[in-house]
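Today's session is about reading a structure prediction critically. Students often jump straight to the picture, but the first step is always the sequence itself: look for stretches that repeat, for charged clusters, for runs of hydrophobic residues. Only then move on to the predicted structure, which in these notes is written as discrete structure tokens rather than atom positions. Here is the chain we will use throughout the hour.
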Amino acid sequence: MIATKSARANNFASPEEKLVLQTMRDLAAEKKHVQTSEIFENVRKKQGAGSMNFQKVLHTLNVLNEYDLVRRTVILVENMPLLVWKV
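Below is the predicted structure for this chain, in token form.
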């Protein structure tokens, strides 16, 4: 299943989508749930400060979610809902 998703991403994804997806995979290797802000910070580290703004990263994550390459979910942290992403 993961190999199929990787092939789908390599064949159809834009360069920005590939960057965000690879960043997600790197972060997912370190932790189970990844926040949008963590993804944004790491994308900026990889591409430089002027690469993608927060809204573009969020939009790209939503597109990847539609492609079923990532999943968004809400978890509770100290009784507060928090939007997180999983590969």
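Discussion point for the tutorial: The chain has four helices and three strands.
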